[in-house]
Amino acid sequence: MRLLVVCLGNICRSPVAEGVLRARIEASSLAGRIELDSAGTGDWHVGDPPDRRAIANAAEHGVDISGLRARQLAALDYRDFDWLLCADKANLRDVRARAPKGARARSALLLDWCNTVTDGEVPDPYTGGPAQFEHVFQLLDRAADGAIARLREELGLRG
Ligand code: 4NP
Prior knowledge:
Layout: E1 2-7, H1 13-26, E2 35-40, H2 52-60, H3 77-80, E3 83-86, H4 89-97, E4 106-109, H5 110-113, H6 130-154
Parallel strand pairs: 1-2, 1-3, 3-4
The site of 4-nitrophenyl phosphate (4NP) has 10 residues, from loops.
């Protein structure tokens, strides 16, 4: 199962989501079964590490995202991933608008997919402060619980 988390810049929300989901999945019975990546709909930060506030906040929670580098969503992602999981509704709209003909990947709001909140968005913390980054982390940490439950179900695993 291959999951791609998508936000706007791929330096705040989606790298944190990638880091938290990877850490939680690898510590679960799903270890080794799920491939994760993240991307941005925009190209402003391609090649950059995550925002330093996102790195610092994740590190406070024991998650190291400093080695990640931003990339832009590409046409091949629609072939290579099972799910494109979006941080907010604008991201989801952009992802759907860019879908190439015959795209295989399905798309959803990340928090919906994880059964965390219906119609829920991960708010962009880029222009905010530490409290906004902490809120994003908490949302994504809860989402990881839901992701693990859903993945276990989809892969027919118990416990
Ligand atoms: P992200 O946050 O989508 O969570 O990575 C943003 C990062 C950069 C910009 C916007 C949002 N930007 O406009 O550069």
